[in-house]
Design brief:
The protein contains 9 helices and 14 strands. It folds into 2 domains: 177 residues, Rossmann fold (3-Layer(aba) Sandwich), CATH 3.40.50.2000; 117 residues, Rossmann fold (3-Layer(aba) Sandwich), CATH 3.40.50. The relative contact order is 0.13. The strands form 2 sheets. A 7-stranded parallel sheet has the order 3-2-1-4-5-6-7, covered by helices on one side. By secondary structure, the protein is α/β, with parallel strands linked by helices. 34% of the residues lie in helices and 19% in strands.
């Protein structure tokens, strides 16, 4: 093995997807004997602390990005948060410089944390969105994102380079001279043949208020279930809990091992078409109903792309029905 390095890994706290898709990367470097420092905030930081209690952790400033409750307003709502995002990025840059000195960092990996970057050490940026879809604002958001990731020494896309890919035109540009490296599907899930416990399992994720709104819709639909169903709320807490209401088991959150078990023991999965969920469920070869987050064009694109390519089902949040 080469000389152990000090590696800073920093996923964005926007839902749990950025943190969970970093888990295989953290596991890889941990097994190789490198010293890993994980930097994030909020629920993403809490989740990784539970997954890797033996590693070092640092709290970063929170971007605290929110969605609008009215989907048609969401793109403009996100653009209005750009000054706050810029301020947070500058604070991150300052803290990153301090962390490089404090931990003698040799190499850093940022999963969509715009300010975790340095010219002093090799800097890698993880994204599946080389093209950022935002409706009428797609050209602008793609341009702004490119201005960020072009600073890095390498851009890692968690997908494959060829036609057998999951991100479609989000993660593939027709022509580019950028230092893009396709690192393959990054998932912590392993398929296993297990007896089915749940007819439907809904896995919630993403920022508020849309996570909460979809939870309310699901619970109302689950009242009609004739067989056992389950809901994972995606809400971090000190300890995992499960409560039962009739035919419905409600989990606040689950660890990687428990999630893998529940997914393998469920017949049909209901999930947001966020990219980490896409990678996880593709690995398990499950029957899926994708319900894109309202007002998020990227998730709408991915859901339709996967429906055409793999025969998955797609429903909208407002018209969701418990049927496959």
């Amino acid at each position: 093995m080469s000389q152990p390095k000090n590696i800073l890994i920093a996923p964005l706290n926007w839902g749990l997807g950025h943190a969970t898709r970093c888990i295989p990367i953290i596991q890889k470097y941990d097994r190789q004997g490198h010293r890993i420092i994980i930097a994030s905030d909020g629920a993403a930081l809490q989740l990784l602390q539970k997954e890797f209690p033996h590693l070092s952790f640092v709290s970063l400033p929170g971007y605290n990005i929110t969605y609008a409750s009215r989907p048609w307003y969401n793109s403009l709502h996100l653009l209005r948060q750009l000054p706050h995002i810029w301020q947070t990025m500058r604070a991150e840059q300052k803290q990153t410089a301090q962390l490089i000195d404090q931990y003698a960092i040799d190499f850093l990996i940022s999963d969509n944390r715009f300010g975790v970057y340095s010219k002093r050490v090799k800097s890698v940026y993880i994204t599946h969105q080389l093209r950022v879809m935002s409706g009428l604002w797609t050209f602008l958001t793609t341009f702004l994102h490119a201005r960020i990731y072009q600073k890095y020494d390498e851009i890692w896309v968690p997908d494959t380079a060829g036609n057998d890919n999951l991100s479609g035109k989000l993660g593939h540009l027709s022509q580019t001279d950028l230092p893009i490296k396709y690192i393959g599907i990054q998932t912590r899930m392993q398929p296993a043949k297990m007896p089915v416990k749940y007819e439907y399992l809904a896995v919630l994720s993403g920022p508020e208020p849309q996570r909460r709104l979809f939870e309310q819709i699901l619970l109302k639909e689950f009242e009609k279930a004739g067989n056992k169903v389950a809901l994972i709320q995606g809400k971090m807490a000190e300890t995992p809990t499960c409560i039962t209401r009739g035919m419905v088991d409600i989990y606040n959150y689950v660890t990687t091992e428990s999630l893998q078990n529940l997914l393998n023991r469920s017949d049909i999965i209901i999930a947001r078409s966020g990219y980490t969920s896409v990678m996880d469920l593709h690995a398990l070869r499950k029957k899926v109903i994708w319900v894109p987050t309202s007002g998020q064009p990227e998730q709408k694109y991915l859901a339709r792309y996967l429906a055409r390519k793999y025969g998955h089902k797609v429903q909208t949040q407002d018209n969701f029905k418990l049927e496959f």
